[in-house]
Amino acid sequence: MSKDKLPFFIKPIGALVLKLFFKNTKKGAHTSVIAAASAKIRENAEMYKGAYLEPVGTLAVPSKVAQNAELGQELWTTTETFLTSIGLS
Hints:
Layout: H1 10-21, H2 25-28, H3 30-37, H4 39-43, H5 45-48, E1 52-54, E2 58-60, H6 69-85
């Protein structure tokens, strides 16, 4: 089915889903910018070092999956293998 033959209600539903569950790039970058440039974070560097920040710049505890060291090692190894395979090691 081509894009121009979709039922009329698909586009508005898609737009609503995007608006509810996703951020635009400007808003999505807020936490990264805060982590990189905030005076508060520089002044409390030890408290924020290696910490997990939720939007917008709030300290939080990562999920259990994110804290799983075995999965973290698997991700690291997979990433290294992939980068090596494309010549970026």
